[in-house]
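Can you give me the bound-state structure? Components:
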Amino acid sequence: MSSAQIEIQLIASIVAIACAIPGTFLVLRKMAMISDAISHSILPGIVVGFFITQDLNSPLLILLAALTGVITVVLVEYIQKTGLVKEDTAIGLVFPVLFSIGVLMIAKKANDIHLDIDAVLVGELALAPFDRLMISGVDVGPKSLWIIGGILIITIVLLLAFFKELKLSTFDKGLAASLGFSPAIIHYGLMTVSSVTTVGAFDAVGAILVVALMIAPAATAYLLTTDLKKMLWLSIVFGVFSAISGYWLAHLLDASISGSITTMLGLLFLVVYLFAPSKGVIAVMYREKQQRTEVSLLTFLLHLKNHEEERERHVNHLNEHINWQKVRSKTILELALKNNLIVIDEKIVSLTDKGDEFTTQAIDYIITNEDSQIEGMKDDFFLFRG
Amino acid sequence: MLGSFAVLRKQSLLGDAISHAALPGIAIAFLITGAKDSNTLLLGALVSGLIGTFWIRGIITKTHLKSDTALGLILSLFFGFGMLLLTFIQKQPNANQAGLDKYLFGQAATLVESDVWMMAVVTGICLFVLLLFWKEFKILLFDKDYAKTLGFNTKTIDILITSFIVLAIVLGLQTVGVVLMSAMLLAPAAAARQWTNSLATMVFLAAIFGAFSGVFGTAISASQNNLSTGPVIVLVAAVFVFVSFVFSPSRGLLFKQIRFIKNRRDLQLHKTLSFMYDIAITHDDISHPHEIKILNNFQGYTKRTLKKLVEKDYVTLEGSTWSLTNEGFKSALNLYNQLTRNDE
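Here's the bound-state model for the whole set.
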């Protein structure tokens, strides 16, 4: 690994961490799309800043771009407050307009200078190490490393200082307000941090990757845990992991680094989405299937209890009567047998004492529909799963 | 046109997500065919747009992630993947690859006649289906449960609408590009929403607004150098939205403000009148003249309200005194009756 490679991975990882922290809160506050809006609408801010400073890395540029980001948020909220359109429509209206203004400004004034839209949207991480920061003639490292590192430190300090407030206002706005924290200040603070991070990162990794790095790790982590601290840590880990693995994927394919980091994020999310222990698609489907079986079993037992005649309790008759497929009725029968709820005597099914008691309980529960009854039932249900 | 449905269904940002999600489809279609035939590329875009949409659905229904997260996630992930493929293609020795990135920002000028025909045909089909399923769409839009109880297959209709939105977006990509597509979808519909409460009128108006912004935008961009078409169209559409927000008669900000001021004036007028009534009632003769100065104690009073009262013949002015007329007394009495009735 050359030093440039290490630097690229370092930058990517730091960007990932810096994005993951505000991203977690954005996802929890249901404002994920705002980050997308910000990443697009900072363009005019960058362009104006560029006209003034003629330098893509000056702090003024970041400040102006962050300001545009905040303006976006304010505009969206203002439009939303008029009640004329919904929030998502407001977002969808504001950022393309600001972006168009930015594109037009570039097209009119800045055609001949180094600032094209592709670079803003996609970014080029591979070039980041060549833009070095010189302090009194000494090479201290890539510029973007310093910028994003500085932003990260600020973010972490703010996070540690206001963790309690952020947590409270994220989960219970009313309580936070009544305790005297101003939700508005925290809201705009978070928005400012998001804007600054977006701006700091866009130069290195592009606007789209910023959005991906903000939302994807946080969303992935959210599928795995409901603890805020764990979620933060997990999203940082996911971000860094995909940054580094994405870099090597890009190295392998000789393709855009930001694109492959995003792809890694996507793969990571897909895996978690499918296999997450309690909230993944497969887990949910499995649970649904289990619940269906439980309900079927209950129906079956109730049927047995209601019918004393032997004809109704014949194994073959059950198939048609409750209208189940063969496989399904077989599973149910086996399950009931295994739990000693029924006995089968010459193809005639009858309830055991235990089964009878259980069914009575179930009927009680269904009739009264009281929560106190369900607790005992849950324990009983638990028996079947084994 | 279809944007109306998106706006009303609160899926505005879906357009944004789909337009980004279409990118890998374009790239993959190119990788498979190796040619830059716009129809196959659009097909690829359509397929990946649909995959993106249904994955978003899946995330929202199957997990506890919210719709905004799902949208942002799919949007950025698909786009990133598309970028990966695009850069990968660029490294391939294939002379055809140039110009694929046109799809990113769109360039109406690059459209050829066949593209335009294609668009016209698809628009025609959209229109036809829209008219055919008008009733179903409408019912689904405003009362999903009702539609279900009526026996409509809501899932199929849902998928139908979504597919058409995706189709429209993919077609528009060529013209205005990925980023600005969402504005094209939303802006006309949002503008139209301000002028009417009827779905039919709204769809019609949205189509008109959309067409106008397209025509004006193209004209402006053609008249100047260096102005790309997409952003100009979006800005024109934004102007439409802004004008609609401000000037729409029933919902607009301007008229809302005017109504607000008018209401306040009416209130002041009534207050003054009732105050006068309180004074007048203490005298036997209701038209007994009083000094204007008395009214100064009263806050809602201005010279203009007094003048208005005179205009309405409720009050007569003589020098520095005023007196309630018969008519004024009656209406003040009515005012009181109304108030007490309301209180009860």
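A couple of observations. Chain B touches chain A through 62 residues (CB under 8 Å). The first strand of chain B starts at residue 290 and ends at 291.
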